């Protein structure tokens, strides 16, 4: 209260606006205000309109292309006229079970499993060290080192490895200097593994696949290991567990979704690749090279589509199992 007994006047910031105090009409609503109010009151409709373009793209272009591919695999290819006719048949899928074609599928599947296991075995210690023992600039250096191979051209890397694995390459030079040439030659004589040289052996092909896909395994495992609280490992050690027991009982189960997430990339990429099998290793065909051969050289599109359906089925089953194991939470 003031000395005159009246309440003080309100501050200028709380005073009514001049146009309203003078009785002026409010600003008329613009068309944009009507539209924004309409969508604000119907948020579900707003969400569906935002999701419609990417969902249509995914449904029509991606899923539609896969369905068209599977449908085309039931067409008939005439070996006499070299023409494709829309006569539906299951002969292409029955041909997949023939001796030579089944060998191609099993050969590709075995390489995909071997590369995935090797990437997990090599990548887990690297991911663990990055997550637990690196900080700041040192961690950034590790990130760059892991991702640097991904920045180079894939074909250039594959061609470079053909030179590295050749008899005049770096690996043979190192092996000769340390006196292990005899051991390498003995390994190359093993069935299903060796060849005349590393560049023409399944071992060399395996090394190139492992090098190419290793970063795709390290990054998901690193993300999963980072989520493991360090106090759990410390508690395991305090309770008397040895490092191996802590790894098997605590760290590996908690980080396993990251391993499965990384294996999705390494397994699927190996299963569908056709460049490395053409450049490195023996002459045996893989699924990717067989698709390229059937489509590009022979023109048998239905058979190429049937071979393409094999990775689709395998990866679908693999993704279902990975989802059950919680691998998508580690991506």
Would you write up a description of this structure?
The chain has 331 residues and is mainly α. The protein has a domain at 101-330: MetI-like (MetI-like fold), CATH 1.10.3720.10. Helices cover 71% and strands 1% of the residues. The chain has helices at residues 18-21, 31-41, 43-72, 91-96, 99-133, 136-151, 154-165, 170-177, 181-188, 202-226, 230-238, 243-272, 275-279, 287-298, 301-324; strands at 76-77, 84-85. It has a two-stranded antiparallel ribbon. The chain starts with 17 loop residues before the first helix and ends in a 7-residue tail after the last helix.
For the structure shown, list the relevant keywords:
single chain; 331 residues; two-stranded antiparallel sheet; globular
Helices and strands, with pairings:
Layout: H1 18-21, H2 31-41, H3 43-72, E1 76-77, E2 84-85, H4 91-96, H5 99-133, H6 136-151, H7 154-165, H8 170-177, H9 181-188, H10 202-226, H11 230-238, H12 243-272, H13 275-279, H14 287-298, H15 301-324
Antiparallel strand pairs: 1-2
- Mean of residue pLDDT values: 83
Structural class: mainly alpha
The residue ranges in which pLDDT falls below 50 over 5 or more consecutive positions are: 12-18
* Distance N to C terminus: 66 Å
- Biggest beta-sheet profile: 2 strands, antiparallel
Helix segment tally: 15
């Amino acid at each position: 209260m003031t000395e005159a007994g009246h309440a003080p006047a309100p501050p200028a910031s709380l005073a009514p606006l001049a146009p309203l105090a003078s009785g002026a009409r409010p600003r008329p609503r613009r068309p944009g205000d009507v539209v924004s109010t309409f969508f604000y009151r119907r948020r579900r409709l707003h969400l569906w309109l935002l999701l419609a373009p990417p969902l249509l793209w995914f449904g029509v272009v991606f899923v539609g292309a896969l369905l068209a591919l599977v449908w085309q695999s039931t067409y008939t290819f005439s070996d006499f006229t070299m023409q494709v006719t829309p006569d539906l048949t299951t002969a292409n899928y029955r041909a997949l079970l023939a001796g030579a074609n089944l060998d191609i599928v099993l050969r590709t599947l075995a390489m995909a499993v071997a590369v995935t296991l090797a990437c997990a075995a090599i990548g887990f210690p690297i991911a663990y060290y990055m997550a637990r023992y690196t900080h700041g600039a040192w961690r950034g250096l590790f990130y760059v080192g892991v991702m640097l191979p991904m920045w180079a051209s894939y074909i250039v890397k594959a061609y470079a490895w053909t030179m590295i694995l050749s008899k005049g390459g770096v690996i043979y030079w190192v092996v000769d200097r340390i006196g292990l040439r005899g051991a390498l030659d003995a390994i190359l004589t093993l069935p299903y593994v060796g060849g005349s040289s590393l560049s023409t052996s399944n071992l060399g092909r395996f090394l190139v696949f492992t090098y190419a896909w290793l970063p795709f395994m390290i990054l998901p495992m690193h993300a999963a290991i980072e989520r493991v609280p360090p106090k759990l490992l410390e508690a395991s050690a305090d309770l008397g567990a040895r490092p191996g027991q802590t790894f098997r009982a605590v760290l590996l189960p908690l980080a396993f979704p990251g391993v499965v997430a990384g294996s999705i990339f390494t397994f699927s990429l190996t299963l569908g690749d056709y460049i490395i099998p053409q450049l490195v290793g023996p002459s045996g065909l893989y699924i990717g090279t067989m698709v390229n051969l059937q489509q590009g050289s022979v023109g048998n599109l239905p058979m190429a589509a049937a071979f393409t359906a094999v990775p689709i089925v395998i990866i679908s089953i693999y993704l279902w199992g990975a989802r059950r194991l919680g691998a998508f939470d580690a991506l």
